[in-house]
Amino acid sequence: MNYKRLVIFATVLTFGLIMLGAYVRLSDAGLGCPDWPGCYGKLTPHLAAPEIAKAVAEQGGTHGPVSEPKAWKEMIHRYIATFLGLLILTIAATAWIKRKTLNQSPWLATSLVGVVCLQGAFGAWTVTKLLKPAIVTGHLIGGLTTLALLMWLSLRQTSPVRTVAPPQDQKHLRILARIGLVAVACQIILGGWVSTNYASVACTDFPTCQGSMWPQMEFDHAFHIVRNLGETADGQLLSQASLTAIHMVHRMGAVVVIAALLSLIVALWRNAGTQLLAVGLTAVLTLQVLMGIGNVVMHLPLWLAVLHNGGAALLLITLVLVNYRVASKVHRA
User: One matching Pfam family, short form (predicted)?
Assistant: First the structure.
């Protein structure tokens, strides 16, 4: 497989792995194997069947976090993540070996190795630290950062950066594209915080929340980073008002993102060379907003929650594409 195909394959695999990770988390399988990197010290859940059966008996049935199907979900995610890590190591090595042929700096590919190593550490901590929200959110951020960097690297292999707007508009587009990317990244972090704190169902109506446009919220503990799942920093149960605050801030963030991206879409539409980007960004944004609303009014069905995570990843790489297209020059770093 040549370098271009290798990078594209890794990008597609990362997108799929992000959706699989969301499925593992949302189906309550994140602790299906409560150790790392194996499952009860074994290579596969099948080999760990006696230990899993004992854990199931101790928790009083398969309704808890441990069961063999959940263990398989968790381990399949780990197997694919390990394969992706090896793939990225291969990409980085190839980038150095063929740097003259590729006519590209190998440092972007090399930086991916560092991100993946950190991502692997977050994956281990996610399990060993019992799903602490900050660590699980960090794991999500690491996965999406990997996807964004791979997307940029893929675009380098498939099409050169070129001018797509008159010089007087290029700088304006570039600024709006960067603002849009930052806004989406921040919103994804907020969405991760909602998901990892299980605050998605704190509001089950829309556009109101609990029948009010401004429900009771408590912010003191909602965004305290270092704490256990479902608890405040001092070990008390996290209140419903705190979960509501987390949920509502994500909704408010969505308004900011929509405003930022609409400004970008209008600017893209006004230039003949970027109208297709405007259409694509509009479609992805609309789909993501509808899925977000659907998750609220349909009480977070698993399939839609997973698709909403995938929509966030798709929106991110769409913004990476837009930023790449409106860049004024080729970046070699």
Answer: COX15-CtaA
